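Dear Dr. L.,

I hope this message finds you well. Following up on our conversation about the binding site, I have prepared a predicted three-dimensional model of the protein together with adenosine-5'-triphosphate. For your records, I am including the exact sequence and ligand specification that went into the calculation, followed by the structure tokens. Please feel free to forward this to your student if that is useful.
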Amino acid sequence: MKDKSTSGPKMIGLTGSIGMGKSTVAAMFEHAGIPVFDADAEVRTMQGPGGELIPAIEAAFPGSTGPGGVDRDALGKLVFADKAKLAALEGIVHPAVGQKRAQFLKDNADEPLILFDIPLLFEGGGHAHVDHIVVVSAPALVQRERVLARPGMTPEKFEHILGLQTPDQEKRERADHVIETGVSLEETEEQVRALIEVLKAQV
Ligand SMILES: CC(C)(COP(=O)(O)OP(=O)(O)OC[C@H]1O[C@@H](n2cnc3c(N)ncnc32)[C@H](O)[C@@H]1O)[C@@H](O)C(=O)NCCC(=O)NCCS
Ligand SMILES: Nc1ncnc2c1ncn2[C@@H]1O[C@H](COP(=O)(O)OP(=O)(O)OP(=O)(O)O)[C@@H](O)[C@H]1O
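The resulting structure of the complex is given below.
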């Protein structure tokens, strides 16, 4: 990622804890015409069938990949239970995501505003390189209900992943703008529209 500067697109870093609504809100920005870089989607492609990270992940975690790419459920069980293993996986995945991000920036050099949907924006230090930090946030109970409704999720896994992430309260404090997602989708979309107006006026 480039350093903040006066030239090139203004970069929005969108983040939020598990289930807070990053993907949903990123889609709203995209719908409003803002180019979106989706870090999770890049990871899924690189970990999918024939993906470029398969050899390195198979070497580090034998048996964790197959014809369908990475078995994410199995790998998740392994790495979310062991900090060293998670760090090893991040060491493989994060540099590759960084390269994709740099390419996205080049491809969109003429845009006024672009958005990076980065789940680990604070944890990975990316916050220092964007012009505007936007955090999606909802009350903890809403978050919990949403995440526990996902197939394969358990209260233990949810608590554990939460513990790996910068707390919501801290994210809200460090944000330039907070988008509330504990409200209706329409209200959230209205907040997104209003924010885009504010940010465009600053370009
Ligand atoms: C371990 C993997 C295979 C599990 O995949 P799975 O589809 O089961 O879960 P998913 O990716 O949807 O993640 C579930 C939740 O955990 C969070 N999470 C994922 N990786 C991490 C991490 N390294 N640290 C903290 N939270 C994480 C996600 O943001 C999400 O909220 C996958 O999460 C992965 O490859 N993670 C390492 C890469 C990474 O850091 N990705 C997130 C930022 S790009
Ligand atoms: N106002 C709202 N804003 C955003 N999401 C909402 C809202 N109301 C309900 N939701 C629902 O909450 C869920 C949020 O999930 P989403 O995948 O966007 O979160 P995420 O932060 O990307 O998750 P993860 O960190 O696990 O990848 C979706 O099912 C979405 O439809």
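In brief: The CA atoms of residues 15 and 143 lie 14 Å apart.

With kind regards,
A. P.
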